């Protein structure tokens, strides 16, 4: 779901950078240094998960894992996703440096929003936690697709068809991401419950 260079209008690019700067700043402020290894590992998982992608016009469809990062890292998902997208832009030209702000906010904003929205379910056990984790994965991708579509639509009427195609193309990915997030959170609850406990207090 990377937006390519030269696609977005100036105001949209500026808005993306402003929102991402605020998000990264708040994420770093809420990040405990003893959790840096966890953040680094999940940032790497996000980086790898996004490498295999299918181009759709100026964007692409691929596994995102932003809901998983949001569920485990909370606000720290912003700097984790920002680093991963920066490396992808520099090393593989996915997206780009100028459009980096918009791409970061499109991915990290929904991750953090879902972490807060479904946090009460994630704090519970059993089926409630699984439902919360699934919702984190599903709705984080849905919101990311909608934000990407809005960014394109606001940049020109010519991108309206592509904006609609983005949301439709990511429906299967939403389901897969929901299932992956539910399984990952369930696994962590068994083997590293303290990791989830730390995440849910952020």
UniProtKB/TrEMBL annotation:
Q: GO biological process annotations for this chain's record?
A: transition metal ion transport
Quote the InterPro entries the UniProt record gives.
CbiM/NikMN
Q: Look up keyword Transport and say if it applies.
A: yes
Location of this chain's protein in the cell = Cell membrane
- Describe its membrane topology: Multi-pass membrane protein
Q: Which UniProt keywords apply?
A: Cell membrane, Membrane, Transmembrane, Transmembrane helix, Transport
Enumerate the transmembrane spans. Answer: 36-56, 68-91, 97-118, 130-154, 166-189
Signal sequence, start to end? none
Question: What Gene3D superfamilies does the record point to?
Answer: 1.10.1760.20
Domain of life, per the record? Bacteria
Output the Gene Ontology cellular-component terms. Answer: plasma membrane
Show the NCBIfam families listed in the entry.
PRK06265.1-5 (NF004905), PRK06265.2-5 (NF004909)
Q: Which PANTHER family does the record match to this protein?
A: METAL TRANSPORT PROTEIN HI_1621-RELATED (PTHR34229)
Q: Name the chain's protein.
A: Cobalamin biosynthesis protein CbiM
């Amino acid at each position: 779901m990377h937006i390519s260079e030269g696609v977005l209008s100036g105001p949209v690019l500026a808005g993306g950078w402003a929102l991402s700067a605020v998000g990264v700043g708040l994420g770093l402020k809420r990040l405990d240094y003893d959790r840096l290894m966890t953040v680094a590992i999940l940032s790497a998982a996000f980086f790898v998960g996004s490498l295999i992608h299918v181009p759709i016009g100026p964007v692409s469809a691929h596994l995102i894992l932003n809901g998983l990062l949001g569920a485990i890292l909370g606000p720290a998902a912003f700097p984790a996703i920002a680093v991963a997208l920066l490396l992808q832009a520099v090393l593989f030209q996915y997206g780009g440096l100028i459009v980096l702000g918009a791409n970061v906010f499109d991915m990290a904003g929904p991750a953090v929003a879902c972490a807060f929205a479904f946090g009460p379910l994630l704090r519970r056990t059993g089926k409630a936690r699984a439902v919360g984790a699934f919702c984190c994965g599903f709705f984080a991708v849905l919101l990311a697709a909608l934000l990407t579509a809005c960014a394109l639509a606001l940049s020109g009427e010519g991108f309206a068809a592509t904006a609609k195609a983005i949301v439709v193309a990511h429906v299967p990915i939403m389901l897969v991401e929901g299932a992956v997030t539910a399984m990952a959170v369930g696994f962590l609850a068994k083997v590293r419950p303290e990791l989830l406990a730390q995440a849910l207090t952020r």
